[in-house]
Structure formats: C-alpha cells, structure tokens
Amino acid sequence: MADFQRSSCTTFLCTQKGMLLFAEIILCLVILTLYGVSTSGYISLSLIELILAIIFFIIYTCDLHTKIQFIHWPWTDFFRSLIAAIIYLITSIIVLVERGYRSRIVAGVLGLIATALFGYDASITCPMRQ
Fold this sequence. Notes:
This protein is an all-alpha fold. It has six helices and no strands. Helix 2 (16-38) runs antiparallel to helix 3 (43-61), helix 3 packs antiparallel against helix 5 and helix 5 (73-98) runs antiparallel to helix 6 (102-125). The radius of gyration is 16 Å and the shape is elongated. It starts with a helix and ends in a 5-residue tail after the last helix. The chain crosses the membrane at residues 20-37, 43-66, 78-97, 103-120. Pfam families: MARVEL.
C-alpha cells in the first residue's frame, strides 16, 4: 500500500500539472511569509491560495478527481487559477505602488511572478483547449 501511494505521488509530481501545483504551493508560502513580515493586510490571499493549491495537489495525487465525478475538476481548477492570477496581479500592483519595506517590495515582485505562474496554469488547464 505504501509503495502504491509513493509511486502515485512521484508519478504525479513528474507531470507538468504536478510541478505547477508544487511551484504554486512554494511560491504562495514564500509570499505568505513576506506579507506576514511586512503587512498583515494581504495575508489572507496567499493563505487561501496556499490551502486551495494543497487541496488540489492532494486531489490529483490521490486520484480523487476520477472518483468524485459530480464536480467538473478541469473547470474548477481553471477558475481557481484564473481568479488567483487576477487577484495576485491586483494586490501586487497595490503593494508595489505603496512602497515600504524591502520585504513588501519583494512580495510584490513575487506576486507578479505568481500571477504569471497562475496565468500559465489557467491557460494549460482551460477545458476549452482540451
């Protein structure tokens, strides 16, 4: 049983979607830390996106998206990525315009990188392309 779980996890991590979700989790964690140091107003965005990315990572890793069929997973994942990209773009622009501590500026720049990452995820996840 443990070998099956380990192999399915490493198999998913080797896919493009697995690497994207792992990168989203790491980037959200770093941005959450930087927002926590500089300002507490934008912590909720990174925290929510971190939790959603972890949930989708677990769903895809455990192959639950094939077992739970009453939810259309490609559309759900597409809207999650698209909304995250838009919100990260807005908050990053606000943080960069306000200026402030260096950690705030770094969080804003990483937020723009997260915008690109989530936007790319949304573009490859779009069910209309498949």
